[in-house]
Amino acid sequence: MYKYGKTLIQKYFEEQSFVDSDIDSFNNFIDKELLNIIEENREIIPTIIPHNIDEFKIRLDKIWVEKPKMIEADGSSRNIYPMEARLRKITYSAPCWITVSAHINGVQRESFDTQIGNLPIMLKSKWCHLYKLPRDDLISRGEDPDEPGGYFIINGTEKVLITIEDLVSNKLLVGKDSTGPSEIVGKLFSEYGSFKIPHTVERMKDGLFYLTFTRVKRIPIIAVIKALGLLKDEEITRFILPERQFDEVIINLLEFVDIKNEDEAIDYIAKKIGITQSKEVRIERMKEILDKYLLPHLGIKPEDRISKAYNLCKMLKKYILVSNEEFDFDDKDHYMNKRLKMSGDLLADLLRLNLKVLIGDLLYNFQRIVKRGKFPSIKVIIRDKLLTQRIYSSMATGVWVGGRKGISQRIQRLNYHETLSHLQRIVSPLSASQENFEARELHSTHLGRLCPIETPEGTNIGLRKNLALLCTISGELNEEDILKMLKNVGLRVIK
After folding, report:
1. For a Cys-Cys bond, which of 19, 130, 222, 454 suits 150, CB 3.0-4.6 Å?
2. CA–CA dist 207, 252 (Å, integer)
3. What is the pLDDT of residues 367-385, one digit of tens each?
4. Is 186 found in the same domain as 313?
5. Domain that holds residue 153
6. Statement: residue 47 has pLDDT above 70
């Protein structure tokens, strides 16, 4: 058995690498996430435009990345390989291009391709010159043929992005709370772009269910459901659980039986959170808050409200069933309720933030020139070095989005095993100075996924972990592809 096991493991590593998951994450970032980031910032509308123009907007149309290049002092451009980047103490990066167009009164004025910055390229990824090179070619380029890749070269220094362990987004987790006014609390983090908005469901002593998100503190959940367009008590009951009626839900419905339409419900919530303007303004402001900050992962448009109402009903159903001890409490430390943020996800967060900074700088420069009575070309006001410098700075220092530190680390090269260990490291965002005993303990779901032994002694014990040898991290799948597969095996849509 040992012989066969040894052969299988050997065969596995002939075809796979320790860092395949990380490389796939980076490839996905270039292939898909860049397009998603541009889609989020597709149209840029300046607030100050020339008085003779009714409408002006800047569109970001297309984005792509080339392979790593080096521009010499004489202006010539050529391909650069990792070994040269190490020796010359420069960053192994590739130019990132974008198509920008300006539209005046609905008519396109100009369209051009411009470089918005340089992106660091992961070694052995699809955009690296070493990708699928044979052993002899790797040796001729000065590279170790057994090198797994999966890291970056920043100013000549080899840097690895540490995988971050985080709680799952967009999923309600119900657990006990010993400190707050409610004994049982349901928590959900709604993730949209680079934002994570916490939502809390709780039941107070008055028997009512309350919802909290951003500036909206402890608002009756039934009022929110009615504000989203689900008005009939019968429908609300049916969407919570069609087979039976809960006494808790009936009590909550009776409390808000006087609310007959959406505007009344929206006005009720607006008054509760302290919006003091006229009724029309109150309702409009409240609609904007509901669209932007309530479950934004389901959509931020008015037509998405009904979907949010259905989801709130399902959240309420789970909370009631757990409260009645028909369901078990959710285990936050179960790896089903965890997600790992790899290099591609971390770079997407970084680029998303810095692109907004670049757009802000573009708008500032445009509006400053317009105030002088001139109408500038967009081409001359895009500063490509701004994005590059900010990304390089985060990669060099390890300071990341949200104030997190130590994300980018200098790779350890004492021996080959230590290098592999560093490339497979996972860090919890919890503070090392706090106890967090449950989070540090070995969980049964770690086996086969995380190494049960390799963790440091001292304050970081259980918070700094390593992937198991044969562990592979799956990437995010497209919902449409999953539905197509399910339909092929017999799933039917019930209308």
Report:
1. 19
2. 8
3. 888 888 888 778 888 887 8
4. yes
5. 15-161+342-429
6. yes
